[in-house]
Request: fold
Amino acid sequence: MKMVSAAKYAKAERELRAARAYGLSAKGFYDNLEVEKVEGPQKHLFIAATSDRGLCGAANSSIVKNIRTQLNDGKQDLEGTKIIAIGDKSRTGLARTHASNLLLSVNEVGKRSLVFGDA
Reply:
């Protein structure tokens, strides 16, 4: 059993070593990025990723409740806050109370083939 674990660990370590260059170059890109802070009102974007249907009720509702709580606590400027809803459950859960904040709604992700119009 230990030999199998050692072999799997060695394989994962080899794969990680090969991918490390990509990670370091991406890190170097972001470390050297010169970004200026934009003055003015802050804008916020929430991305709610839920399922379209199925037996994920607790997960879906907790995502919607969390976003709804953060929007209703008064700390967020609702005018500068937008929501992207991925999945039908997030769209229906947030459209009732925050329809004006919905920027984009996407459903059936991964179920149908992409076409040029989707891009």
